[in-house]
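hey can u check if this looks right to u? its 425 residues, i copy pasted from the old doc so theres a chance i mangled smth
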Amino acid sequence: MIDFKNENGILTVTPYTGDIVVTLTGGEFPYDQDEHQGTASVTGIPAGYTYELSVTNDPVDEVSDGTVEVTYSLVIYNSKGEDVTKQLENNIKSNTAEISVTPIPATIEVKNSSKIYGSADPEFDGTVTGLLDGDSLGDITYYRERKDGDEAARVYNDVLKASYSYDNPNYDVTVIPGDFEITKNNTAIVIESESNEWTYDGQTHTHEVYTVTYGGTEYPANKDGNVYVVELPTGDKVEIKPSTSGVKDVSKDPVTGNNTFTYTLENKENYQDVTTVTGTLTITPKPVTIVVDDSSKAYGTEDPDFTGHPEGLINSGDLGTITYYRTNDKEEANTYPDVLSAQWTKENRNYNVTIDKGDFTIHSNDTEITIRSDSGYKTYDGTPYTKWVYTVEIDGSTISLLPSDSGYMAYLPNGDLIRVLPSGA
C-alpha cells in the first residue's frame, strides 16, 4: 500500500505498514438439524478505506460433513473506491479455524419383561428418546441375550438388548438394557395312575396306565423301557415308574390308592402346582354256584347221602370241604322244594357263593307188610275158645305183636306202630 502525503507542496509517498488482522471463529456445534458456519471479522483497515469480508467455506449441518476449515474473502477499497487488496496482501494476517457438527445423545431404553417358565419369549419393546423430528435409527430390534440354561425361573439382569439397522452418525446412541424375569410355571400338572378292577381269577394283576394332565389337557404316558414318559408342552419330561406289586385277592377292608408309582419331572423347581392321583386296583369276588342234586327216599327209610358240585372255583379246595344236608325233618311222603342245601368249611372272600338248592322227595313205602293171626284148636268142652296171637312179616322178618290195654301192638323198623284188635269171640 502507498500512502500519499502533500506537505508544503512536496508530495511524499509512504507504504502502509500496519497489520490488517482477519479473525476467524469456528466451533463444534451439537447436531440440531440446522446449518452452522464460521465467522470472520477484520481489524486494522486503514482510515478512509472500505472492505468486503465474507466467509467462503460450505456450512456444516451433519456430523458426516466432517471438519471444515473456515475460509474467507476480503476485498479492500481505498478512499477512491479502488481495489487495493493486492497491494495490501502482505499486511493481511489471519488465524485458522474449523467448524464441525458433533453427535448428540440418543437413548434406547429396553423395557423390563417377563414370562412364565416353559412359554415362548414375548415380544420385547423399548422407548427411544433424543431423536429429532424426522430422524431415525432404522429398524430397531429388541432381543434377549441368553446363554445355555438361561430358562430357569429367576431374574436375569441386563439381558434385554436392542440393535438398530442405521448407525446414524448424528447421534451417540446408548442402549439401556432391561431385565428379564422367568416366573415359576403355575399351570396345574396332575400325574395320575388309572384305576381298574378284575374278577378274581387266581392271578396277580397290575395296571400300568398313566396320564399327565397339563392345564386341563391329558397326555397319555408311553412306555420307554421300565418307565413311562410324557413330554410336556414346555419340553420337560415326566418319567413315571410303577411301584405297586399288584393285586391278587379280594381285600378284607376297603383299599384305595394302591396303584402306586414314583415320578421325576425335569426342572421340577420351575413348577409350583404338581399333584399326584393314585388309582385303585380292585379284585372283586368271583361268582360260584354250588349245585345241590335233587334226591329222594322211600318213606320210613334213612336219608341217603346228599350230593352236589361247585361251579366256578379256580381251585377245587378253595372252599374247603363241601357237605350237603337237608334243612327240614319232615318224614311224610311228599316233595319238599329247596330243602337240600350245602355248607363248606373254608370262608373265602374271593368268591361270592350262591347255592342252587335241591328238592327232596319222600315216596310211599312199597315194602309188603303181612299181619298174621295164629291158628289153633281144642276138643270141645262147651267153653269159648280164642287164640289171640299175632305176627307181622316185613322184609323177611317176623315181629310178634304184644298185648296191651289197647290191643296187640308192635313197632315196625321205621318206628311206625301197628295195633291189632281181636274181633273173634
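The first strand starts at residue 2 and ends at 7.
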